[in-house]
UniProtKB/TrEMBL annotation:
<feature type="active site">
    <location>
        <position position="180"/>
    </location>
</feature>
<keyword id="KW-1133">Transmembrane helix</keyword>
<dbReference type="InterPro" id="IPR012392">
    <property type="entry name" value="3-ktacl-CoA_syn"/>
</dbReference>
<dbReference type="InterPro" id="IPR013601">
    <property type="entry name" value="FAE1_typ3_polyketide_synth"/>
</dbReference>
<feature type="active site">
    <location>
        <position position="383"/>
    </location>
</feature>
<feature type="domain" description="Beta-ketoacyl-[acyl-carrier-protein] synthase III C-terminal">
    <location>
        <begin position="345"/>
        <end position="425"/>
    </location>
</feature>
<protein>
    <recommendedName>
        <fullName>3-ketoacyl-CoA synthase</fullName>
        <ecNumber>2.3.1.-</ecNumber>
    </recommendedName>
</protein>
<feature type="active site">
    <location>
        <position position="259"/>
    </location>
</feature>
<feature type="domain" description="FAE">
    <location>
        <begin position="37"/>
        <end position="322"/>
    </location>
</feature>
<dbReference type="InterPro" id="IPR016039">
    <property type="entry name" value="Thiolase-like"/>
</dbReference>
<dbReference type="GO" id="GO:0016020">
    <property type="term" value="C:membrane"/>
</dbReference>
<dbReference type="InterPro" id="IPR013747">
    <property type="entry name" value="ACP_syn_III_C"/>
</dbReference>
<keyword id="KW-0012">Acyltransferase</keyword>
<dbReference type="Pfam" id="PF08392">
    <property type="entry name" value="FAE1_CUT1_RppA"/>
</dbReference>
<comment type="similarity">
    <text>Belongs to the thiolase-like superfamily. Chalcone/stilbene synthases family.</text>
</comment>
<keyword id="KW-0808">Transferase</keyword>
<feature type="active site">
    <location>
        <position position="346"/>
    </location>
</feature>
Length: 482
């Protein structure tokens, strides 16, 4: 995936206009920050709780192999494809799946499977969040739930209100279909509510349900989703109450959303759909990395001037000028790379897949340590959709990397196609290990490979065609649930 942060200098009418806009922008930002501080409109993240399902929901190699063999629509060529994808996916042995898939019931999902998956997540994370913040459910003023692919009625937000007996005047929003970057959309919504209400508390409950969206067919772009998406979720407590400021972990500095839905390619690259047999699933097109790249560049055009220090803006402007001057020379580089490390110390990249992390990391000029939290999240928890970014943040915290005044840049991608970003400032030194607690010392592991090749390398052997029925028969003797 080629993601070049190439902000074409000809898109600025004139160099002077660019500088003037920058100074105006700085002045307006300063005045707005001052106004925000005076009017309690800062957005603080008090705490968050990521979900670690119980170990009986793990999806190790053997179980994944059984689930794959359980699908009688798949042929040898499909196995070969899956083997290649899974081996290179960056996903490890400890990710979690929904119970109905583990029980071998993926072809007949029921409403209660979706409820069970979501209930387990929100009960665990909200119980934990209320306990560790000592905030009571009746103190919650705003609730935003984002779960893309499971939108029952009454909504999941109503289910949360019912379980925790939230107040009658709670402002409630239930976002569905918003994809993997939806938790930043939820955050944006909270930020807007904070503008009109002082000293309030908001909950964002962010997850994805895959129990009803497992794909049982043989369309490769839809099989890919089964390989990448895993169960997870995160609940966050936010406030604009300055009294809670000292207890908060992070304060939001800015948030930028970009939507390329008007571009047909971008819109169509990431879709919930039915295949030629009418089987439902999630299509991840080969053009997705290209759409992500486009959305990322658009987002950076807005975000970069908001977060880059003056020195870096000058440096970038100068290099852009040089680029304009040297345009005629084919030997000159055509790219002006922005130094994002001058704007943030930590980078939460959406662990959407190996190509996503590689692509953004490389083109932002990030090093191995910068992208380690995203790789480790992909390895340990998989792509948990909208909640992924919070596992990445959790990794940084568990590694004790987040120090007071550090800045964290979050970059999320999602169907639509969207790229949403935000920058947080760390309020105090952070070191909660949360879901990473039991094995943070083992990360990064010495070897990241998964044992798929070792166990399923036979699909590439000469006699593979004959082996398929034998392996399937063995699977019938030892079905998925055993
Ligand atoms: C899947 C991969 C790990 C595979 O990596 P590899 O190193 O094996 O390299 P590769 O790209 O050459 O792919 C190997 C083989 O798979 C095929 N292949 C790759 N991508 C495919 C796709 N989307 N549909 C169908 N086939 C695909 C290639 O053509 C190739 O086939 P052949 O061998 O025949 O040539 C990587 O490509 C990847 O990370 N892709 C991006 C995944 C993605 O879309 N993530 C975003 C999730 S959406 C999200 O997070 C947001 C949201 O949902 O809202």
């Amino acid at each position: 995936m080629n993601m070049i942060v190439d902000i074409d200098p000809s898109s600025f009418p004139a160099w002077m206009l660019f500088l003037t806009s920058f100074f105006l922008y700085t002045l307006i930002s300063f005045l707005r920050n001052y106004y925000d501080r005076r009017t309690n409109q800062q957005c603080y993240l008090v705490d968050y709780s990521c979900f670690k399902p119980t170990s009986d929901r793990k999806l190790p190699t053997d179980l994944c192999g059984k689930i794959i063999l359980n699908n009688t629509k798949l042929e040898l060529s499909d196995y070969k494809f899956l083997l290649k994808i899974i081996v290179n996916s960056g996903i490890g042995e400890d990710t979690y799946g929904p119970r109905n898939i583990i029980a071998g019931e993926e072809e007949a999902p029921r409403l209660h499977h979706g409820h069970q998956e979501v209930d387990e997540f929100f009960q665990a994370t909200l119980d934990d969040l209320f306990a560790k913040t000592s905030v009571l459910p009746e103190e919650i003023d705003v609730l935003v739930v984002n779960i893309s692919m499971f939108a029952p009625s009454p909504s999941i937000s109503a289910r949360i209100i019912n379980r925790y007996k939230l107040r009658e005047d709670v402002k409630v929003y239930n976002l569905s279909g918003m994809g993997c970057s939806a938790s930043l959309i939820a955050l944006d919504l909270v930020k807007y509510v904070f503008r009109s209400h002082k000293n309030i508390k908001a909950l964002v409950v962010s997850s994805e349900s895959i129990s009803l969206s497992w794909y049982s067919g043989n369309d490769k772009s839809m099989m890919l989703a089964n390989c990448l998406f895993r169960s997870g979720g995160c609940s966050m407590l936010l406030t604009n109450d300055p009294v809670l400021k000292t207890r908060a972990k992070l304060v939001l500095k800015c948030l930028v959303r970009v939507h390329l839905g008007s571009d047909d390619d971008a819109y169509n690259c990431c879709l919930q759909m039915e295949d030629h047999e009418g089987l439902q699933g999630f299509h991840l097109g080969k053009s997705l990395p290209r759409a992500a790249s486009k959305a990322f560049v658009q987002n950076m055009k807005i975000l970069a001037p908001k977060i880059l220090p003056l020195k870096e803006i000058f440096r970038f402007g100068l290099r852009s000028l040089m680029k304009l001057k040297n345009k005629s020379s084919p030997k000159q580089s055509t790219t002006s790379v922005v130094d994002f490390k001058s704007a943030a110390e930590h980078f939460c990249l959406h662990p959407g897949g190996a190509a996503v992390i590689n692509g953004i990391g490389k083109n932002m000029g990030l090093n191995e340590k910068d992208v380690e939290p995203s790789w480790m999240t992909l390895h340990r928890f998989g792509n948990t959709s909208a909640s992924s970014l919070w596992y990445v943040l959790g990794y940084m915290e568990a590694k004790k990397r987040l120090k007071k005044k550090d800045r964290v840049l979050m970059i999320g991608f999602g169907s639509g196609f969207k790229c949403n970003t935000c920058v947080w400032e760390v309020v105090r030194d952070l070191e909660d290990a949360d879901v990473w607690e039991e094995n943070i010392h083992n990360y990064p592991p010495q070897r990241l490979e998964n044992p798929f090749v070792e166990k399923y390398g036979w699909v590439n052997e000469d006699d593979a065609e004959e082996q398929v029925p034998i392996r399937r028969a063995q699977m019938i003797d030892h079905p998925v649930k055993s």
